[in-house]
C-alpha cells in the first residue's frame, strides 16, 4: 500500500511538470504567432529590400527554437511512457528528467538576465525617483499646508509614512501629480451617460465653480511658504502646476472621491468569460470606488459641449494598483517603465508609463492564471505587452482599460505615433532575437 501511494504521488508530480512544460511550449507558439503578426503590422514601416531579409532571418531564429521544442516534445512523450513503466520497478527515479535540459537552461539564463536588469537598471531608476519625490514633496507639503489653512474644504492626499511619501502619482521621472480631495461637498448631481468619454458631469448644489479658486490659493501659498525661492507657478495653463527648482513639474488637482460607487461607463467590467480578476478582488475594487478629477480630459479634446465646464475626469488609479498586486505584475511594470524612460522617451511623449500600465492590465486578462506571472514568465509577458504596444501605435488607438471608449492616444500626432512604433519595434526585435539584449538596454 505504501508503494502504491508513493507511486501515485510521483506520477502526479510527473504530470504537473509535463503540464508546466506544455504551458511553456504554448507560450513559445504564442510568441511565434505574435511575432508573425508584428511583422505584418510593422512591415509597412520599412520599404527597403533589407526588411524581408532581416526579419526572415529573425523569424527563422524563433521558429528554429519552436522546432526544437517540437522535437523535444516528442522525445518527452516517449520518455514519459518509458519512465512511467520504469517507475513500476524503481519509484526513486528523478522526475527532473521529464524537463528538457536545454529549455531549463534557457529559462534560467533569461531569469538571470531579468533579475540582473532589475537589480541594476530598474532599482537605480526607482532610487532616483524616490530621491526626487522626497525633494519635491518637502516643497509641495509646505504649499499645501498653507492652502488647507486658507480653504479647509481641501484635504491633501500627500502623506509621509516611515520616510516614504504616498499620494503622489509619478507621471514621469520629472513630472508628478498630487490630488486635493474636496470635503463638505454638500448635495451634488452626478451624470455619467457616456456622452463625454472618460468624464462625468458633476454639478454642485451651491453653484461653486470646479476650480474652487485653487489657482489663486496656490499662488498665494507659494509666496508665503519657506521655499518661495524654489517654487513658481506655471502661468500658461488652465491647470494648477508648480515648477520646482526649475527641474520638476507638479500638478495639483482638485478631486472628489466616489467610494462605494462604480461608473455606468465602466459597467462592462469585469468581462464575464475571463477568469481574472477573482470575484473577491472585483468586489473590493468596486467598493473602493473611483475618483473624479477636475482636470483636462483626453476625451474632450476637439469637442464642444454645453456640459464641458462641469466635466470631471474619471480616475481609477487605486483600482489599477489593486489589480496589479500579486505575482510579478508590479515587477513587470517597473521593468516596462524603465525600458520606456531609457528608450521610448520620444518627442511629443507618444508612449507614457500609463500606456504601459494599461497594456499590462490587458495582458493580465490574456494570462489570467497566477502561474503565468511567476518570475520565470516575466520575459514572455514583457514581449507580449510590447507587441500589443506596436499594434496600438500602428492602429493609432489605445483603449483605456476600464473605459474602452476613451482612446489614450487621442491628441497624439500620427507622425509621433509612427515614429514610436518604429522605436518599439527595434526594442522588441532586440529582446526577441538576442538572449543577452538586456545587458545593453
How would you sum up this structure, described in words?
This protein has helices at residues 2-42, 50-87, 101-150, 214-224, 279-288, 317-323, 329-343, 353-366, 378-395, 414-433; strands at residues 154-156, 159-161, 164-166, 168-172, 175-182, 188-191, 199-204, 231-233, 240-244, 248-258, 290-293, 311-315. By secondary structure, the chain is of the alpha+beta class. It has three domains: 1-99; 131-316, Beta Polymerase, domain 2 (2-Layer Sandwich); 324-441, Orthogonal Bundle (Poly(a)-polymerase, middle domain). The radius of gyration is 26 Å and the shape is globular. Keywords: Membrane, Transmembrane, Transmembrane helix. Residues 164-326 form the Mab-21-like nucleotidyltransferase domain. Belongs to the mab-21 family.
Tell me the domain tally: 3
Question: What is the N-to-C order of secondary-structure elements (H for helix, E for strand)?
Answer: HHHEEEEEEEHEEEHEEHHHHH
Structural class: alpha+beta
- Overall geometric form: globular
Biggest sheet: strands, sense, closure? 10 strands, mixed
Strand content: 5-15%
SS field, number of helical segments: 10
Helicity, in percent? 40-55%
- Named CATH topology of the largest domain: Beta Polymerase, domain 2
Oligomer kind: single chain
Number of strands: 12
CATH class of the largest domain: Alpha Beta
Distance between the termini: 57 Å
Low-confidence stretches: 1-22, 42-63, 65-70, 79-98, 207-212
Tell me the Rg in angstroms: 26 Å
Average of the residue pLDDT scores: 78
The CATH architecture category of the largest domain equals 2-Layer Sandwich
Amino acid at each position: 500500500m505504501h508503494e502504491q501511494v508513493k507511486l501515485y504521488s510521483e506520477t502526479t508530480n510527473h504530470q504537473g511538470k509535463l503540464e508546466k512544460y506544455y504551458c511553456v511550449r504554448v507560450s513559445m507558439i504564442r510568441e511565434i504567432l505574435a511575432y508573425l503578426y508584428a511583422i505584418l503590422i510593422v512591415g509597412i514601416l520599412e520599404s527597403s529590400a533589407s526588411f524581408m531579409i532581416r526579419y526572415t532571418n529573425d523569424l527563422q531564429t524563433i521558429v528554429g527554437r519552436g522546432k526544437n521544442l517540437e522535437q523535444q516534445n516528442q522525445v518527452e512523450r516517449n520518455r514519459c511512457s518509458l519512465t512511467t513503466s520504469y517507475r513500476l520497478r524503481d519509484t526513486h527515479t528523478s522526475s527532473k528528467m521529464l524537463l528538457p535540459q536545454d529549455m531549463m537552461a534557457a529559462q534560467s539564463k533569461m531569469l538571470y538576465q531579468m533579475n540582473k536588469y532589475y537589480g541594476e537598471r530598474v532599482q537605480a531608476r526607482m532610487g532616483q525617483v524616490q530621491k526626487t519625490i522626497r525633494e519635491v514633496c518637502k516643497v509641495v507639503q509646505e504649499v499645501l499646508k498653507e492652502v488647507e489653512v486658507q480653504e479647509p474644504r481641501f484635504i491633501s492626499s500627500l502623506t509621509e509614512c516611515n520616510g516614504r511619501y504616498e499620494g503622489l502619482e509619478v507621471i514621469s521621472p520629472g513630472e508628478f501629480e498630487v490630488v486635493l480631495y474636496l470635503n463638505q461637498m454638500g448635495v451634488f448631481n452626478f451624470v455619467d451617460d457616456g456622452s463625454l468619454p472618460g468624464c462625468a458631469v458633476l454639478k454642485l448644489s451651491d453653484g461653486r465653480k470646479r476650480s474652487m479658486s485653487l489657482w489663486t490659493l496656490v499662488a498665494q501659498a507659494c509666496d508665503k511658504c519657506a521655499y518661495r525661492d524654489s517654487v513658481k507657478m506655471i502661468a500658461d495653463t488652465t491647470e494648477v502646476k508648480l515648477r520646482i527648482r526649475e527641474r520638476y513639474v507638479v500638478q495639483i488637482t482638485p478631486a472628489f472621491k466616489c467610494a462605494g460607487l462604480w461608473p455606468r461607463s465602466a459597467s462592462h467590467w469585469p468581462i464575464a468569460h475571463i477568469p481574472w480578476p477573482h470575484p473577491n478582488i472585483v468586489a473590493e475594487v468596486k467598493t473602493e470606488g473611483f475618483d473624479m478629477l477636475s482636470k483636462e480630459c483626453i476625451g474632450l479634446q476637439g469637442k464642444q459641449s454645453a456640459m464641458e465646464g462641469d466635466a470631471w475626469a474619471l480616475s481609477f488609479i487605486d483600482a489599477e494598483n489593486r489589480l496589479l498586486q500579486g505575482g510579478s505584475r508590479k515587477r513587470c511594470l517597473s521593468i516596462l517603465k524603465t525600458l520606456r524612460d531609457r528608450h521610448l522617451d520620444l518627442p511629443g511623449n507618444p508612449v507614457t508609463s500609463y500606456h504601459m500600465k494599461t497594456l499590462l492590465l490587458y495582458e493580465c486578462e490574456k494570462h489570467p492564471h497566477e502561474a503565468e506571472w511567476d518570475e520565470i514568465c516575466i520575459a514572455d509577458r514583457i514581449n507580449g505587452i510590447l507587441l500589443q504596444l506596436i499594434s496600438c501605435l500602428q492602429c493609432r488607438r489605445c483603449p483605456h482599460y476600464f473605459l474602452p471608449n476613451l482612446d489614450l492616444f487621442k491628441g497624439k500626432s500620427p507622425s509621433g505615433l509612427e515614429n514610436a512604433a518604429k522605436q518599439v519595434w527595434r526594442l522588441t526585435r532586440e529582446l526577441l532575437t538576442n538572449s543577452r539584449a538586456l545587458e545593453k538596454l
